[in-house]
Specification:
Low-confidence stretches: none
Distance between the termini: 5 Å
Radius of gyration: 20 Å
Largest sheet: none
Structural class: mainly alpha
Oligomer: single chain
Number of helices: 11
Amino acid sequence: MQVRQEIFDTYWRFAAMRQEVFFNKLKNVPPPWTSDPILNTYKFCNAYRVSDRVSQYLIKNVIYDENRSKNEEEVLFRILLFKIFNKIETWEYLENKIGDYITVSKFDLEAYSTMLQEAMDLGYVIYTSAYMSCASKEFGYDKKHQNHLALIDKMVVQDRVINFIVKAKSLEEIFHIIESYPLLGKFMAYQLATDINYSEVINFDENSFTIAGPGAERGIDKCFIDTKG
């Protein structure tokens, strides 16, 4: 494996400085959080995925909220519903409209679809801009959100996918279970597998398997002349 040493070293210096910013924010240090003018001017992802705002909300408020059910199927449902939109405001809008905690036992595809349509009619953007989710009419609905809700219904309610997930022997197997469903390409399937792994439903080493997204692949191409060995 041949390395472009200057670019490789620059990447790790950047990652270390970005993590320093994270720690300084965590300690409530007043800005600037770094001496680097680029990091002080522009926004960058955290060095660790789990550190980002949405992942922390997922862990604290969706997965491990003490007032929510610890049932594995309920936990899986909450993770999938939250992450298919990947937006805190959408989750909170739904719970405010329902007037209760979101549960699979009370999941109503049409009712949820109507609530989200009302949100869009009011000008809300219900999907994250962090990454694009597939927008085909796989389940026969005209609207993207309707097909995604139908996907969750198919996975959790109809197929009881929890039964396959809890029996999986690896993170890679979890990935392939999720990828087998429509509207979820390799990148999204891996993201969901990682999010489920934050919970107690499964427990695999994150370093045992990965799917590189397009940004990661571009970074690898910049840092390495070849990737053999």
